Amino acid sequence: MHATNTADVATASTEEGSSPAGSSGAIDAAEFARQTSAILASITAVIDGKDDAVRSALVCLLAEGHLLVEDVPGVGKTMLARALAASIDATVRRIQFTPDLLPGDVTGVSVYNPVAQEFEFKPGAVFAHIVIADEINRSSPKTQSALLEAMEEHQVTVDGHSRPLPDPFLVVATQNPLEMEGTYALPEAQRDRFMMRISMGYPDAAAETLMLRQRDTANPLDAIRPVLAATDVRALITWARAVHVAPALEEYAVALSQATRSDPNLHLGASPRATLQLVRAAKVQAALDGRDYVIPDDLIALLPEVFAHRLIAARGLHRAGARPIEAALEGIVRRIPVPVGLPR
């Protein structure tokens, strides 16, 4: 896919905090529910028994974030991303991160054309609606950082020229647990670019048996038919972004974030970007639940997935079987008063 194909993609602007009733998008609440339900049903037909993971992927797409899936090999991490792409008729590229992968392989390079006597840009694998960064922690930090600008700005700059990426744009990165051989820890700046981190886990016996039957003679991805076009996703994003967040809930989100920065059990707390992404994800969560307003439970439910991968536990708290970061977040939720009597 060439970079020039992405320049004409229109982006819709939204006003933070406005009501969906006043949204300029071409859909209403019923159409949002119909389209998102169709996407979820399409993916869960392939990823059986992992409804939470499927929903998280859709939340990241509609909140314009990126998803980090950390788990052991073979549990369907890549399949999840491919099923999402197929369901929205999106272009998808897979980057296998290896120790010898170069930054230019990700973003693209300028190559001299002797016939035209000029340099031509050859787009890298990042030029797609959905980019699967497979086993991202098996490449060097330098190559990992090649995704930073793309994830934050939805563009890449090569040789001084900025080139826009397709809209929508979602990075689904997979990584193996750090104790596995040949892995590099993602730097803090890279982890902070991911809106959510999830773990899919092993399927239960029924789901694993169904997988055997479904994939014995065919690839289930081949049976997926798009339920909407990639260009239609922008209307869903616009609708979800306009979900109302009461000022008291904005203050609650900030209080949760600031509490991580002063918690004695945490060496590194949540960034301001984490606060923003928590609220954006909560808006999508509310919209998927059929509401045009966020409630405290939206923020609380998303807190581990949005915050945990950005935090670093204080020294001495890592023990076998211990979950110091999750325990710290649970303590923060208990300490910070939940707003009540919110206007809707």
TrEMBL record:
Domain (ATPase AAA-3) ranges: 66-196
Endpoints of the signal sequence: none
The UniProt record lists the keyword Transferase: no
Residue stretches of biased makeup (Low complexity): 12-25
Keywords: ATP-binding, Nucleotide-binding
All residue ranges annotated as the ChlI/MoxR AAA lid domain in the record: 258-315
Record has Iron as a keyword: no
Region (Disordered): 1-25
MF term (GO), any: ATP binding
Coiled coil location: none
InterPro entries noted in UniProt: ATPase_AAA-3 (IPR011703), CbbQ/NirQ/NorQ/GpvN (IPR050764), ChlI/MoxR_AAA_lid (IPR041628), P-loop_NTPase (IPR027417)
Recorded family membership: Belongs to the MoxR family.
Official protein name in the record: MoxR-like ATPase
Source organism: Microbacterium azadirachtae
